[in-house]
Amino acid sequence: MGLLQEITELSHEFGTVEYVRGGGGNTSVKDAETLWVKPSGTTLCGLSEGAFVAIDRKKIGGLYDVQSPKDPSEREALVKDVMMGSRLEGAEGRPSVEAPLHNSLSAKFVVHTHPAIVNGMTCATDGKAACQRLFPDALWLDYIDPGYTLCMVVRNEIEKFKAEKGVEPAMIFLKSHGVFVAADDAEGIRASYHTIMNTLRDEYRKANISMELTVGPDPDAAVAAEAKGSVTSALDGIAEVDLSLSGDFEVYKGPISPDHIVYAYSFPFVATPSPEAIKQFQQTNGYWPRIISFNGLVFGAGETRRKADLALEMSQDGALVTQLAEAFGGICYLTDRARNFIENWEVEAYRKTQI
Ligand SMILES: [Zn+2]
């Protein structure tokens, strides 16, 4: 089987809702000269062999030799320019922002995902200690801003790990983000994921924590229509929205991970919606709410139906992560500084236009 065929199969296998939501996660395969990586703004499950962006490994490695600008947006622009300039002739699409990180690992296959089962640990207060206990051979990294900083820090940490242990890490857990799995063959990727998921499932079982999110029954049509009407009129003049509706669940109350911020935003609106209350929310947070929870119902809201669906799906994922994190000391939200970085991040803004 060809390399691209193998990475496409892996992308589909690890592109299910158990592992990623929306356009989250990324995969790559490489030989000595070329890295083929998932394009930004695509989904793992929808990838085809021809979609991978071919990158010159030497050129993208040049990113590490450039003097880094102090201004964060200049830094992100630099990564973008180097990445776009590293594409082989004829390559289309914008390479995933994590492409330099994929390139830093010498293993042939890299599969990066954000499973709720894993984030129950990486987003928990005692996640680091749990990771060291459960996965002693893995590399754990404290929270790092996505993009340029992530690529630079991970590269250094991989070098340190190699110097200490004589091998590259096969698993890299990123606090409040997800996991990278690297191996020289597809079976190695599957084996590592099998270990990760089963080890964590055992922990949740031992802690007596359900791995399913409890969602209340769908409301009857009349109740749903009335609730929908009050959300729409509360948002009147602020945004034209499509809505996605579900039965009740315990919505998350703060920024969980970059992807949760991107798709469902950091904070939900939990009250009966009125124009005044929505305006107040907007003044406090700088955006109108994507998650609205009241009367035993939860709405996802977005400019399109797809965005509304994704907001709701991501909110449920975050609620499940919050539930699972109880096994490791409870949920640990991102700091205001980390949250602001994501909320102002150009690359994520780009990705949102793609969904
Ligand atoms: Zn990620």
Topology (SSEs and partners):
Blueprint: H1 3-13, E1 26-30, E2 34-37, E3 53-56, H2 57-61, H3 72-85, H4 99-104, E4 109-113, H5 116-122, H6 127-134, E5 139-141, H7 148-165, E6 171-174, E7 178-183, H8 186-206, H9 221-234, E8 242-247, H10 258-264, E9 269-270, H11 275-285, E10 291-294, E11 297-302, H12 305-325, H13 336-343, H14 346-354
Helix pairs in contact: 5-12, 10-12
Residues 112, 114, 177-178 line the site of zinc ion.
Quick structural gist:
This protein is an alpha+beta fold and 355 residues long.
Small molecules in complex: zinc ion
Q: Oligomer, anyone?
A: single chain
Would you identify the CATH H-level superfamily of the largest domain? Class II aldolase/adducin N-terminal domain
CATH 2nd-level architecture of the largest domain: 3-Layer(aba) Sandwich
Strand order of the largest sheet: 3-2-1-4-7-6-5
- The amount of beta strand, in percent, is 5-15%
Number of structural domains: 2
CATH class division of the largest domain: Alpha Beta
Question: What is the number of helices?
Answer: 14
